[in-house]
Structure formats: structure tokens, C-alpha cells
Amino acid sequence: MTTDQEPSTPAIDAVQAAGITHAVTRHGRVRSLEEAAAARGIEPRDLIKTLVVRVSEGEHVFVLVPGDRTFSWAKVRALLGTNRISMPDADEAREVTGYERGTITPFGSRSRLPVIADTHLCGRTISIGGGAHGVGLTVAGDDVIREFGATVADISD
């Protein structure tokens, strides 16, 4: 684990409390996933997008997808056994997670939501949001899957 002298976030506190080996990366605001990956010194495939998906009124899940892949609506609907899912607006996402868009992560989320992780997270070191703009957590994908009891499935194209 790192000793980070900068201000903490709920995500950093949560990964530390879980005892997960991690590194905190801090950089300025970025305009794209590619820019964020470059600022963290990693490939886009190693930067994980955390999406909040509404399954039904009041029911949400986190979906974790590598940065070089596209979230598959059809695959997630099939996995969840539903014909309809949607993305909540920014206010609803913040209400559910405590994070604004661009900073969302399952670590330290206001609500402990089910997590669906793409198979590409398995066996790899990844960078996931650290709960604030320009903050990333480098962790083992397997540790994230284990910590949240994530369902692992092919959910991207």
C-alpha cells in the first residue's frame, strides 16, 4: 500500500480499510479516457470505466469495463435477465454513489451495489477511479472482483 500525503477520498479510505494492496495516482483533470491513461502511465485497456446502470426504479449495479472496450447493452441485459436497462442521469448517479460522473468507483460508494466485472479484469493490474477528478487507484483486478463479490462475465465488445 502507498502512503499518500494528499487529501483522502472515500474510495482511498475504502481500499485501505479493505487491506487491498494499491497505489494512488494523482494528476490534473483530463478530457478523455486516453488522456487519463497517459497521465497515469498506463494503456487505455488498463484503465477501468465504472458505469452505474439502472436495472429498475431504485435498483442499480456497477459495471466495470476496460477502457479499450465498449460496454455491451445486450450482454448486460441478458446477464441480468431483463429487457430494459438504462443509465441514470448525473444527479441520480451522484445520489446513488456519492460521486459525480468521471469519479465513480465501487470503492467508498454511498450504496454497496452489485458489481459486474468484464472478464478482461481477471488476472491483470488495473487502474480504477479513486473517487475524485484526477485520482486513480492501481489495484489487482482479482482483488476488486473478490472485494465486491463481482459477477464476472463477457459484457463488452
Largest sheet: 4 strands, mixed
Q: Which blocks of ≥5 consecutive residues have pLDDT under 50?
A: none
The average pLDDT value, as a whole number, equals: 94
Radius of gyration: 15 Å
Share of residues in strands? 15-25%
Strand order of the largest sheet: 2-3-4-7
Helices, by number, come to 5
Gap between N and C termini, in Å? 33 Å
Domain YbaK/aminoacyl-tRNA synthetase-associated: 28-146
Pfam family, one: tRNA_edit
Protein name: YbaK/EbsC family protein
InterPro entries: YbaK/aa-tRNA-synt-asso_dom_sf, YbaK/aa-tRNA-synth-assoc-dom
Structural account:
- Pfam families: tRNA_edit.
- The structure is a single chain.
- The chain has five helices and seven strands, in the order H-E-H-E-E-H-H-E-E-E-H-E.
- Strands 2-3-4-7 form a four-stranded mixed sheet, covered by helices on one side. Strands 1-6-5 form a three-stranded antiparallel sheet.
- It has helices at 10-17, 33-40, 73-80, 90-97, 141-148, and strands spanning 23-26, 48-56, 59-66, 115-118, 125-129, 135-140, 151-153.
- The protein is an alpha/beta fold and 157 residues long.
- 35% of the residues are buried.
- The mean pLDDT is 94.
List keywords for this structure.
25% helix; 157 residues; alpha/beta; three-stranded antiparallel beta sheet; YbaK/EbsC family protein; four-stranded mixed beta sheet; YbaK/aa-tRNA-synt-asso_dom_sf; YbaK/aa-tRNA-synth-assoc-dom
Brief account:
The chain is built from five helices and seven strands; from the N terminus they run αβαββααβββαβ. It has 157 residues and is α/β, with parallel strands linked by helices.
